[in-house]
Amino acid sequence: MAKECPNSIFISIFRQLLIIATLLLFSNCTAWPVLTGLLFPAKAKNSQLLFPPPTNTNSPNNEIFPDSSFAGFSVSPRTGLVTYESGSSVIFTVKLNKIPSSNVTLNVSSSDISEVIPSLDSITFTPDNWDIPQVITLTGVDDILQDGNKSVTIDLGNAISTDKDYQGLSAGMVTTENIDNETNGITVSALGGHIVTEAGGTSSFTVVLNSIPSADVTIPISSSDLTEGIVSPSTLTFTSSNWNILQTVTITGVDDSLTDGNSNFTVSLDLSTSADLNYNGLSQPNIAVINQDNDTAGFTIINPTLNTNESGTSGVFFVVLNSQPTANVVLPLTNNNPTEGTASVASLTFTTSSWNIQQAVTVIGLDDFNLDGNTSYTIQVGAPISADLAYNSLSPQSVSITNIDNDSPAFDITAISGHTSEDLNTATFKVRLMTVPSASVSINFSSSDITEGIILSGASLTFTTANWNTYQTVTVRGVNDSLGDGDITYSIIPSSATSGDVNYNGLTPSSVTVINDDNDTAGVIVNAATNPLITTESAGKATFTVKLRTKPTANVTFMGITSSNTTAGTVAPANLTFTASNWSVPQIVTITGVNNDYFNPSGILYAVTVPSPTSPDINYNSLATNTVNVKNNDNDTQGYTASKTKNFITADSNK
Fold first, then answer.
1. How far is CA 349 from the centre of its chain?
2. Cα 348 to Cα 329: distance, rounded to the nearest angstrom
3. How far is CA 205 from each of CA 223, 291, 342, rounded to the nearest angstrom?
4. What distance in Å separates the CA atoms of residue 397 and residue 193, rounded to the nearest whole number?
5. Packing angle between helix 8-25 and helix 32-39, nearest 10 degrees?
6. Engineering a disulfide at 377: which of 179, 337, 522, 632 sits with its beta carbon 3.0 to 4.6 angstroms away?
7. CA distances from 599 to 540, 561, 594, 634 (A)
């Protein structure tokens, strides 16, 4: 052990001076280790004092610990943080002062999550990351309350760890301030520009609070001159439920009998009353209003903006004088674009007795064939013409009108004039454009079935800016066939138009439907030269022919052509067959007379029957039978012949 200095008084005075100097040098608790070393010096021979010792100024509660020797937390920063209700964020960091022997967890919580929310509920440090700062983000939370800036504490809690140096050790607090973005106030939609009339014309404005109040807010409304204008309602009340809903105040002009000109008055929003001190006693500027005198020279246009349509739809505006004139007042009407619309009258006349009666002007939209879009034009009303100088000096007013375009690029194709037929009859339709093209427009037509109909003329049409609305004719002719196929529908198909006008180029109109009437009917043609045909008993022959009326779709067979009296005549052949190739070629049927020994000078009448044909072609299957009348002339003569045979005379009574 070292011996103490014999001059103990000197040493004691020196220590006191050194303590005073240290206190002056250090204004915070970092001086305490130094003071401890001075006041309680180590007795060891080789001991020494660290001055100043290593410190951690960010440790909780401003503790001072050697970084590598004492458990603790470095939090930066702990104060001075600011968030905003608009949602802006700030950060702070946390790390350990000393490596732990096991994981250290801190639970993070906000003292008011309606104001500030931390990004993490907890953070954990390990022996590997203990000295790496972990970032916690604080975000301001918005509300609709005007509650002022709020101080919020973020509690880092007591550490949870199996390291006994850290277990239960407090990490302290972090404080932040959340800046409020709500402000009290009353918003009025329009403080000026209000015009009412003595005829009862109105104007209005709206009132709404800027933030939710904590108690009802009442705002009295009043007019500065009840002889010029009144307000409704006279009181507005806002609650915590309707504070942000616009409330409307209507100002109504009051009539009088004075020629006092347009009068100014104000509408006041008087001091608000509320138990919410933020809204109690708030004032608003007065609202300026003009009450138009109806005894002042002038005229009013009602509905000064309107639409017409090229299809002929009209719009109506009304004109009335504002006061009684001393003489008639004439208001001429001038249209700056008469190609778009026309007014029903050229002028309006008001008298001293009709001055307050509204007069209507009907504007009718005019059609054109131009793709000119919706077109705006105006009708000027006035300037007035009158011996009343107050009216004669007035300026004109205008009515704004928009004529809605009804034009679109299209082909006007008429209906077909009728049917075509297999007798080569024709039908026509006509084509023109609906609007004026900016360049020539060409279009072609073709038949969907040239076996039924063809285009005789007008297969190619061209329309120009000069002939666009002149009908051009397309003529269609029917085509004959030999089929009994009934009336056939076909189409005349237009191509897509070609043009330098982009509105028409590629435009394809609808097809035209045509019916071609069939002139073919299934049937059998039996042709006999005479009626009846004549055969003779001397084997004289007669013939008739058979053919089909139309081309069949399958073979047609006649089985069993028969004679009604085979003792008078026979038939050959008994069967006939017609095909799609020979249907129109007559086939011959021969009738041969049969001899007999009877005298019949008038001949024998009989008939040959052509039976109903059979065929898979339903048009030919089971048609009616045909009959050919025939007469077989007798070749016998009346008389007898006498001859002698061994003294006997015989006579042939049959001859």
1. 47
2. 8
3. 14, 16, 38
4. 20
5. 180
6. 337
7. 17, 28, 13, 7
- E strand or H helix at 651: strand 648-651
CA dihedral for 273, 276, 281, 282, sign (positive or negative):
negative
Query: pLDDT tens-digit profile of 165-181?
Result: 999 999 999 999 988 77
Whole-number Å distance between alpha carbons of 476 and 416: 9
User: When comparing pLDDT for 564 and 518, which is higher?
Assistant: 564
Sign of torsion over alpha carbons 96, 97, 103, 106: negative
Question: Given CA atoms 345, 350, 354, 355 in this order, what sign does their dihedral have?
Answer: positive
Mind giving me the DSSP string for 147-184?
---EEEEEE--B-EESSTTTTT-B--EEEEEEEP----
At 320, which helix (H) or strand (E)?
strand 314-321
pLDDT in tens, 609-638: 999 999 998 889 888 999 999 999 988 776
Contacts of residue 111, Cβ cutoff 8 Å, sequence gap at least 6: 152, 153, 154, 155
First vs last C-alpha separation in the chain: 199
pLDDT class of 498 with cuts at 50, 70, 90: very high
Q: Tokens in use for 414?
A: 């008429």
Q: Are 57 and 76 in contact (CB under 8 A)?
A: no
Joined together, the tokens standing for residue 288 give 């300026």
CA distance 335 to 347: 11
pLDDT of residue 5: 46
Q: How far does CA 284 lie from the centroid of its chain?
A: 45
Please name the residues in contact with 628: beta carbons below 8 A apart, sequence gap of 6 or more.
Answer: 526, 528, 532, 533, 544, 589, 591, 607, 608, 610
Q: Is the dihedral of CA 381, 383, 387, 390 positive or negative?
A: positive
Phi, psi of 255 (to 5 degrees): -85, 150
Q: CB within 8 A of 190, min separation 6: which ones? A: 205, 287
The whole-number average pLDDT for the span 482-503 is: 90
Could you tell me how far CA 143 lies from the centroid of its own chain?
A: 38
Q: Which residues contact 155 (CB under 8 A, 6 or more apart)?
A: 108, 109, 110, 111, 173
In the predicted model, what is the mean pLDDT of residues 348-369? 91
Whose CA is closest to 535, among 632, 618, 391? 632
Q: What is the pLDDT of residue 44?
A: 37
pLDDT tens digits, 372-423: 778 899 999 989 999 988 899 899 999 999 988 877 889 999 999 899 988 8
Q: Is pLDDT at 34 greater than 50 in this prediction? A: no
What residue type is 654 in one-letter code?
N
Q: Give all strands (DSSP E) within 405-561, no chain letters.
A: 411-413, 420-421, 426-433, 441-447, 453-457, 460-463, 472-478, 488-494, 498-499, 512-517, 524-528, 533-536, 541-548, 556-559
Distance of alpha carbon 557 from alpha carbon 282, whole angstroms: 113
Burial (CB < 10 A; 0-12, 13-18, 19+), residue 43, is exposed
Region 283-296: what's the mean pLDDT? 86
Residue 542, both tokens: 């007669």
**pTM (2 decimals)?**
0.37
User: DSSP assignment, residue 60?
Assistant: G
Query: Residue 248 CB: number of other CB atoms within 10 A?
Result: 12
